[in-house]
Task: inverse folding
C-alpha cells in the first residue's frame, strides 16, 4: 500500500470554496437547490481535518491498499485487525507496506496505522508535531513503525491492549516513579508467615543424608557396592529454590521433623511461592526395571591320533630293527610280541606317546602277529567332546524418577594375603571379595512415556580352575554400563558380546607325516572350538500415580511442559534472613494424626507477633 502526502495551505482551500459559492449563486433559479447542495458537498469534501494550534496542516487521508487475491473488504479488515493484535509479539512480521511521505506529522502516520491494522494507540501529550520523512518500499509495517519511533526518540508503554506512545524521557521517568512506588509499597506491606507442609518434596537435604551410615550395605561391601539414598548427593531439597525468590524482607526456615517450610514475606510474594511449591510438591513417577543377562557357552573338541610299532629281528645273529611311535606298557621285551606291542632295542628310550589322543574315549588296536621274524602293531585313539551351557540372570529393581537403585546377589570369597613380618613368621590377612550379580540403574522418566536409563549391570562367577597357589579362585566377569532411551514396557538389547575361539593342534613325525594319505598314520590332530555369547536385555515399566497415590494410565504430554509464575517483588533475600539448616542424623517418626494443612499467620509491622489461629 502507498501513502503519499501533499500539504495545501488552508487559506488556499477557503478561497477556492468562496469562489465556488459565488458561481453557484449565479446559476438559474431552477438549479439553485441542486447548486446549494453541491456546494455543501464540495465544502464537506474540501474541509481539512480539525487542527489544534500546535499542529501543522495534515495530509489527506491515503487511499486504502489494493485488495490482493480478490479478498473482500470485510475479510481484509479482519486480517489487518488480527495483525494489530499480534504487534509486539516475538517473531511477528506484518504485511509489507510502502511509505513515501515528506515532513508528515508522526501523529497522522500513527492514526493511519491504527485505521489499517487495528493497533490501539494513545498518543501522549509529550509527543509534539514532529515532521517525519519516510521512503520505504516492501517493508513489514511493524518494522517500519518501530524504526520511525526509534528515529524520533519515542517509546511504547503497553497497558492491556492499548499502546501509549510517549517520548523516551517520559517513559523512563514514569518507570523510575513506578519503581519508587513499588519499593515503598514493599517496605510498608505487612508481613505474612505461612507454614507449608510438604508431602513429596524434601524441604532440605535428601533421605540419604537423613539415613546416614545406616542406609548403605554392610558385610563385605566393595567399592562397586551401593551407598544408599538418592541419586545425587548434592541435592539440597527445595529450600534453595524458594529462598532465592524471596524479597529482601522475606525469610524462610524449615522444620526437619515434619518436613515443613516456614516462609515469611509480603502477601503477594507468598501467593507466588505457594504456586511454585504446589508445582514442585508432586509425586514423581516410579519405574520397575527388569534386566535379563543371558550367557550362552558352547564348546567342541575332537582328538584323533595314530601310533605304530614295527620290529624285525634276526634271531641267529641277534639283529633287531624297530620303528615305534607307540610307547610300551609295563615290562616290554625286545622283539616281537604275539597279541601285543613289539618291543624295540633293549634298554632304549620309549616314545612319549604324543601322537595318541589326550582325551581319548575310543581305542582301536591292530597287530599283524608274527610274519616270519617281523611284526607290526597299530593303535588308533580318538576322542570327541561337545558341550552347551545357558545361564539366565534376571535382576529386577524399582525406583523413583532420578533416583539410583541397586540390587546385588552373589557370594563372597576369602582372599588370603601373606605379609612378611621382618624375618619372623608370615602374617596372613583375609579379605572377603564380593562376586555378585549386580544391577544399578538411574532412570529419568519423561512425560512422553519414555525412560532415559543409566544402567550398570554385571554378572560374576567363581572360577576354581584359575586358583593360585594359595587356593584363591579366579573371577569370571561380564559387565556393561550405558545410557539408553527405552519406551515404557519396551524391551531392548543394551549390550552384548560374542567370543568365538577356534584352534587346531598337530603332533607329527618329521618327514613321514608329509606323505600324502600315508602321512596320516604318523600324526595326531586335535581340534577345539569355544563360543561364549552374552546379551543384556532391559525392560522398564512406568508407574504413575496422582497426588493421593492412585494409579494413573497413559502419558502426561507430548511436548515440554511450561508453566509461568509471575514474580511480584524484586529478588533480594539476604543470607541473614534464612539460617543454614543443620543435617538430620536420624529419621524421627511422624504422628499419624497430624495432617499437612498449611495455615497463615499475618504479622503487622509492629514487634508483637499475631496469635496463631
Result:
Amino acid at each position: 500500500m502507498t501513502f503519499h502526502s501533499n500539504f495545501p495551505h488552508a487559506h488556499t482551500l477557503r478561497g477556492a470554496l468562496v469562489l465556488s459559492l459565488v458561481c453557484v449563486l449565479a446559476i438559474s433559479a431552477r438549479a439553485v437547490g441542486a447548486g446549494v447542495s453541491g456546494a455543501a458537498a464540495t465544502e464537506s469534501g474540501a474541509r481539512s481535518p480539525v487542527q489544534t494550534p500546535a499542529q501543522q496542516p495534515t495530509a489527506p487521508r491515503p487511499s486504502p491498499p489494493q485488495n490482493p487475491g480478490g479478498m473482500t473488504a470485510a475479510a481484509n479488515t479482519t486480517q489487518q485487525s488480527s495483525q494489530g493484535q499480534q504487534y509486539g509479539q516475538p517473531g511477528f512480521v506484518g504485511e509489507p507496506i510502502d511509505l513515501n511521505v515528506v515532513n508528515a506529522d508522526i501523529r497522522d502516520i500513527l492514526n493511519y496505522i491504527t485505521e489499517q491494522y487495528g493497533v490501539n494507540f494513545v498518543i501522549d501529550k509529550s509527543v509534539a508535531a514532529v515532521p517525519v520523512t519516510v521512503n520505504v518500499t516492501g517493508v513489514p509495517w511493524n518494522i517500519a513503525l518501530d524504526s520511525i519511533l526509534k528515529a524520533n526518540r519515542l517509546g511504547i508503554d503497553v497497558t492491556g491492549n492499548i499502546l501509549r506512545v510517549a517520548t523516551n524521557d517520559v517513559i523512563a521517568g514514569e518507570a523510575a516513579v513506578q519503581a519508587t512506588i513499588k519499593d515503598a509499597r514493599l517496605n510498608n506491606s505487612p508481613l505474612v508467615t505461612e507454614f507449608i507442609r510438604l508431602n513429596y518434596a524434601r524441604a532440605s537435604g535428601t533421605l540419604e543424608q537423613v539415613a546416614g551410615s545406616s542406609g548403605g550395605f554392610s558385610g563385605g561391601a566393595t567399592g562397586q557396592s551401593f551407598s544408599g539414598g538418592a541419586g545425587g548427593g548434592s541435592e539440597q531439597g527445595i529450600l534453595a529454590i524458594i529462598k532465592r525468590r524471596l524479597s529482601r524482607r522475606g525469610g524462610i526456615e524449615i522444620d526437619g521433623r515434619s518436613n515443613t517450610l516456614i516462609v515469611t514475606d509480603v502477601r503477594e510474594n507468598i501467593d507466588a511461592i505457594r504456586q511454585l511449591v504446589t508445582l514442585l510438591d508432586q509425586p514423581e513417577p516410579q519405574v520397575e526395571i527388569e534386566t535379563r543377562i543371558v550367557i550362552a557357552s558352547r564348546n567342541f573338541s575332537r582328538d584323533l591320533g595314530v601310533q605304530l610299532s614295527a620290529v624285525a629281528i634276526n634271531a641267529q645273529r641277534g639283529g633287531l630293527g624297530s620303528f615305534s611311535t607307540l610307547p610300551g606298557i609295563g615290562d616290554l621285551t625286545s622283539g616281537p610280541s604275539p597279541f601285543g606291542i613289539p618291543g624295540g632295542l633293549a634298554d632304549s628310550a620309549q616314545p612319549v606317546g604324543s601322537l595318541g589322543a589326550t582325551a581319548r574315549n575310543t581305542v582301536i588296536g591292530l597287530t599283524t602277529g608274527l610274519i616270519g621274524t617281523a611284526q607290526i602293531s597299530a593303535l588308533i585313539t580318538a576322542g570327541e567332546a561337545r558341550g552347551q551351557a545357558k545361564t539366565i540372570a534376571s535382576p529386577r529393581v524399582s525406583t523413583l524418577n532420578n533416583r539410583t537403585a541397586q540390587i546385588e546377589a552373589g557370594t563372597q570369597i576369602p582372599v588370603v594375603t601373606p605379609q612378611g613380618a621382618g624375618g619372623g613368621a608370615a602374617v596372613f590377612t583375609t579379605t572377603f571379595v564380593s562376586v555378585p550379580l549386580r544391577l544399578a540403574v538411574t532412570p529419568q522418566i519423561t512425560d512422553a512415556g519414555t525412560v532415559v536409563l543409566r544402567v550398570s549391570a554385571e554378572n560374576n562367577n567363581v572360577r576354581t580352575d584359575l586358583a593360585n597357589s594359595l587356593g584363591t579362585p579366579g573371577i569370571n566377569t561380564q559387565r556393561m554400563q550405558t545410557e539408553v532411551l527405552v519406551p515404557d514396557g519396551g524391551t531392548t538389547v543394551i549390550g552384548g558380546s560374542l567370543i568365538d575361539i577356534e584352534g587346531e593342534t598337530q603332533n607329527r613325525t618329521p618327514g613321514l607325516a608329509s606323505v600324502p594319505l600315508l602321512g596320516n598314520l604318523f600324526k595326531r590332530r586335535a581340534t577345539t572350538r569355544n563360543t561364549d555369547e552374552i546379551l543384556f536385555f532391559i525392560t522398564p515399566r512406568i508407574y504413575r500415580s496422582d497426588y493421593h497415590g492412585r494409579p494413573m494410565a497413559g502419558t502426561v504430554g507430548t511436548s515440554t511442559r511450561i508453566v509461568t509464575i509471575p514474580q511480584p517483588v524484586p529478588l533480594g533475600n539476604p543470607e541473614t534472613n534464612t539460617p543454614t539448616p543443620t543435617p538430620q542424623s536420624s529419621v524421627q517418626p511422624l504422628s499419624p494424626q497430624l495432617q499437612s494443612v498449611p495455615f497463615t499467620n499475618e504479622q503487622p509491622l509492629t514487634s508483637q507477633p499475631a496469635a496463631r489461629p
User: Anything to note?
Assistant: Residues 3 and 99 are 5 Å apart (CA to CA). DSSP finds nine helices and 22 strands in the chain. The first strand starts at residue 2 and ends at 4. The radius of gyration is 49 Å.
